[in-house]
Amino acid sequence: MKRWNSKFDKYWYAGVTAFLVVTAALVVKALLDNLGVLGGVISAVNGALTPVYIGLIIAFLLSPLVNAMDEFVFVPLVQKIVKKEKKAAGIARGLSVTVVLVLALVVIFGLIMMVVPEVINSISSLAANLPEYYRNVVKWGDNVFRSNPKLAEYFENFSGTMYEKLITWLQNDLLPESSKLLSMLTDGVVNAMSLLIDLFIGIIVSIYLMAGKENFCAQAKKLIFAVLPQKRGDGMLEVLRETHTVFAKFISGKIVDSLVVGMLTFIIMSIANIPYALLISVIIGVTNVIPFFGQYIGIIPSAVLVFIANPSKGVIFLILIIILMQFDGNVLGPKILGDSIGLKSFWILFSILFFGSLFGFLGMICAVPIFAMIYRWVKRWSNKRLAKKEVPVETEYYRKEPERKKKNIEKEKN
Q1: Which end of the chain has fewer surrounding CB within 10 Å, N or C?
Q2: pTM (two decimals)
Q3: Spatial contact of 220 and 248, defined as CB atoms under 8 Å apart
Q4: Exposure string (b/e) for 240-258, b if CB count within 10 Å is 16 or more?
Q5: Whole-number mean pLDDT of the chain?
Q6: Residue with more model confidence, 16 or 97
Q7: Residue 61 CA to its chain's centroid (Å)
Q8: Strands (E), 101-221
Q9: What is the DSSP letter of 7?
Q10: What was the pLDDT predicted at 127?
Q11: How far apart are CA 265 and CA 277, in angstroms?
């Protein structure tokens, strides 16, 4: 066969490149034209995989407890009865998964039974005592601004306007909408049943995942080494291990930190006789899961609620909660989380704004560990590239511009 003339190679490569570019453009255009259909397919797939997502989250959160139960309780106990090591490990794993799941369900059910009645009572109490709360606020304003009648009059007018708007909203908006409550509750029951089914299936999925996680990990490693070369496979596993460590340490640490903050809030609020102590503690604890913004998201509505009920208690609440947040931010949080993040405040803020705008509440929770890993990978890659160029990798070196230029000139001369 006659060999293709090399002088036509460049035209051949140019033609192939043009063909691939046009094909890629047509594919992108087709995807954009059918974006609604593609979105529907993705939504359907996500809906079908919702129980799997729930199971993965449950297994991820409870796996450390299962490991602890295995190591310190059931493996030593079962090995005294069953001599075969593999069989003993299987029985111990089953017991660990069962005990951890039962404890988790009991704790969650107990919290719901404590919180839901308190929320209902708090809302009912707020609606019933709203006129009295308004009078308390006006009286407090008169006492505070007694020396300045103009400010007192302004405060009274402002609070009166806000009170009238709230009453108008209750009478003209909220109460007429109550006629639609039945249909809303019917839809809510359907959605709740769907959620319960997904949750039940997710729990079953989590049981399988926690029971056989070593086998699943081994299969994943096998697939990685089947697709990638040995060196790249090892690098991929190292990245996955580091990602798991960062996520596990941050998420579990943040949950523990939020639980402690919630309990401390309840204790302090109860000692100071702050109204709605349990409701406020739940709000502060839940919103504290969100880094950076979470504290403010929880403090603002809680402060308004306490201030409406008792203005003087509202001031006390703000003072106490600010002290508690300072303790959490400077002592408790770093003690629990350690150096799992490694990000400056600006990057934490940036990651929460970016991922929160894309993925909502879940994005705000996962933003920090995700961006922490991206930051580490970029830093590692840039340091590796600089090392190949025999250039210092320390950031401080690049702050000293004249000295850096001088060293580069000397290096070129040599």
Answers
A1: N
A2: 0.64
A3: no
A4: eeebeebbbbbbbbbbebb
A5: 75
A6: 97
A7: 13
A8: none
A9: G
A10: 65
A11: 8
- List the beta strands (DSSP E) in 317-380: none
Higher pLDDT, 131 or 214: 214
The whole-angstrom distance between residue 146's C-alpha and the CA centroid of its chain comes to 46
Overall size of the chain counted in residues = 414
CA-CA distance, 133 to 135, in Å (whole number)? 5
Q: Which residues contact 243 (CB under 8 A, 6 or more apart)?
A: 373
Query: Can you tell me the distance from the alpha carbon of 363 to that of 33, in angstroms, rounded to the nearest whole number?
Result: 28
Quote the CA–CA distance of 205 and 55 in Å, as a whole number.
5
User: Rounded to whole angstroms, how far apart are CA atoms 84 and 104?
Assistant: 30
**Rounded Cα–Cα distance for residues 146 and 143 (Å):** 5
CA–CA gap between residue 53 and residue 47 (Å, rounded)? 10
Place of tokens 């996680």: 213
List b or e across 171-202, with b for residues whose CB sees 16 or more CB atoms inside 10 angstroms.
eeeeeeeeeeeeeeeeeeeeeeeeeeebeeeb
Per-residue tokens: 35: 């974006």
**Taking a C-beta distance cutoff of 8 angstroms, is the pair 307, 276 a contact?**
no
Pick the closest to residue 120 from 257, 238, 278 (CA basis): 278
Give the dihedral of Cα atoms 321, 324, 329, 331; nearest 10 deg. 180
- d(CA 30, CA 38) in angstroms, rounded, equals 10
Residue 220 to residue 237: CA distance in whole angstroms? 10
Residue 205: CA count within 13 A, CB half-sphere? 17
Render pLDDT for 320-339 as a digit per residue (tens, 0 to 9): 998 988 888 777 777 776 65
**Where residue 2 falls among pLDDT bands split at 50, 70, 90?**
very low
Under DSSP, the state recorded for 338 is: T
Could you read off the pLDDT of 48-90 as tens digits, one per residue?
Answer: 788 888 888 888 888 888 888 888 888 888 888 877 878 888 8
Chain centroid to Cα 40, Å, comes to 26
The answer to whether the CB of 372 falls within 8 A of the CB of 343 is: yes
163-199, pLDDT tens digit by residue? Answer: 676 666 555 654 455 444 444 444 444 455 677 788 8
